[in-house]
Amino acid sequence: MVPPGTAKGVVMTKMPDVFRQALACTLQHEGGYANDPADPGGETNYGISKRSYPRLDIKALTIADASLIYYHDFYLAPGLDRLEFAPLLAAKVFDLGVNCGTGSAGRMLQRAVNTVCAGEVEPRRRAAWRQKVVQLLGGGVLKVDGVIGPITVEVVRACPYHRALLAALKGEAYSHYARLNPLFIPNWLTRLES
Asked: Which of 12, 48, 148, 179 has the lowest CB atom count within 10 Å?
């Protein structure tokens, strides 16, 4: 939640470009007020749900208020500001966090990292980046706990294949969506590709 007494104008001007671009894309998908009983989000406005924020007047929520909530709770809190060196990846994890929950998005990223970066490669054939990843992970795989902590960030930083990570992340998201309500799959997949 937005810290009490935060001046909206001041915070808005301090938001990084990576977040602003991710937010613009997410808001295109979230739209304004909706209260669809079939939607797992329930009553929402700009994607902010009454289920997650029961004390908010969702119908009266402004885009500025929603932006602040997204910045603090969906971008800073899960540590996406530490992924700004990989802006497309940070933006997609942000959007998935809005759509699926920040913990789920973090786990999707970690599974994608394990798909692309972990795995046994004979030591003499390891590129320098892979050697660094092996060192960071102690020869194992990244713990899939949904926390985008220093190890997750450093493994992503070491990996030169951010587009491959993005593709693997989208595959993880597809697997997640495939288990849910088929009514929303076309929208979710369109969103996933944006």
From this structure: 179
Can you tell me the distance from the alpha carbon of 108 to that of 169, in angstroms, rounded to the nearest whole number? Answer: 6
pLDDT, tens digit, 9 for 90 and up, residues 135-156: 999 888 999 999 999 999 999 9
Residue found under tokens 């390891």: 126
What is the pTM for the complete model shown?
Answer: 0.86
* Residue ranges in the chain assigned as alpha helix (H): 8-14, 17-30, 63-69, 87-100, 102-117, 128-137, 150-158, 162-178, 185-193
Q: Which of 43, 106, 51, 28 is nearest to 74 (CA)?
A: 106
Residues with Cβ within 8 Å of residue 110, at least 6 apart in sequence? 142, 143, 144, 145, 146, 152
At 13 the pLDDT is: 61
Q: What is the mean pLDDT of residues 157-173?
A: 95
CA gap 28, 44 in Å, rounded? 14
Whole-angstrom Cα distance, residue 64 to residue 53?
Answer: 16
Instruction: Give the residue from 88, 98, 149, 140 showing the smallest Cα distance to 117.
Output: 140
CA distances from 43 to 46, 151, 160, 186 (A): 10, 36, 41, 20
